[in-house]
DNA sequence: CTGGACCTTCCAGTGCAGGGGAAGGTCAAG
DNA sequence: CTTGACCTTCCCCTGCACTGGAAGGTCCAG
C-alpha cells in the first residue's frame, strides 16, 4: 500500500505520515524498487494508536515512548499508567488555572459593563484592566 | 532612564523591552547622543498595563490593539469589553474541553489500574489506550 | 508519448513570547 | 588607561505538530 492510500485509510495525510516516520512513530517503511514507500495494512492500526494517544492528550514524544517499549517486546502498561497519571495532574492544574482566570476576567468584565470614558484619567490606559 | 533600570523596575528584562518596542507595544524610545535608549519614568506604567493584559489572558497583539486605540486619543473601553468577552468564551470552551478530556483519561486510567500484561494481545499496542 | 496523479527529498514557515549569544560601542570608577 | 558593567544591532533557537512549496522521479490510461 502506498503512502497516499494509507493516509486516507487512517484519516490523515501523506505529509503527516512522513513526519511520523521521521519522528520515530512509524518504522522506516519498506520501499518499492522505484523508491516509493510500501506499507503493510497493519500500519493503519499503529496510526490509530497514535491518534488515540493524541485524543488522550499525550504528546507525540510520549506516544513514541509507549511504542518504543512495545517494539522492544515489553508491555508498556505501567508506563502508560504513569503517563496518564501525569497528564491527569497537568489537566487538573490547567483547569484550576483557567477557572481562576475566568473568575478574574468575569470580574473585570463586570466592572467594564458600563464604560464611562469620561472618567478615564488620561494618564492610564484603561480603568478596566 | 536606561533600559536595564526600566526593566528592573517593571519586573522584566531589557531583551523583552526591545522586543515590545519591535512589536509596537512601546513607542520607539528616545535616544541619548550615544544611541542608548532613554525612557521617561511613565513608561513603567505602560509596561505594567501590558502585564495586566497578559494576566487577563490577552495576547500581546490584543494588548497592542488597546494601546493603539488609547494612543489615538480614544477610550478603548468598548474594545476592551469585547476582548474580555471573547477571551471569556474561549476560556469556557477550553475548560469544557479539558473537563471532557479529564473524564476520558480518568476512565482510561481506571481500566489501567490493574494492568494484566499477559492479556495484551501482541497485535495491539496497549489495551488501555 | 503525453498528461496528470502520485511519489520522492529538502528547505522553510506557522504561532506565541521571548531567550541566547556574537560582535562591537559607551561610560564611570579606580 | 584599563576593567567591567552596561548598551547597541543582528540573527538564530525554543516547543509542538504539522503544512507549504519547489524540483524532480514514477506510473498508468488514453
Automatic annotation (TrEMBL), chains A, B:
Keywords: Coiled coil, DNA-binding, Transcription, Transcription regulation
Gene3D superfamilies named in the record: 1.10.1660.10
UniProt entry tagged with the keyword Iron: no
Record Pfam families: MerR (PF00376), MerR-DNA-bind (PF09278)
Domain of life, source organism: Bacteria
SUPFAM superfamilies: Putative DNA-binding domain (SSF46955)
Name this polypeptide is given: Hypoxia response transcriptional regulator
Domain HTH merR-type positions: 1-69
InterPro entries for this protein: DNA-bd_dom_put_sf, MerR-type_HTH_dom, MerR_fam, Tscrpt_reg_MerR_DNA-bd
Organism: Brevibacterium ammoniilyticum
Coiled coil residues, start to end: 81-111
Keyword Glycoprotein: no
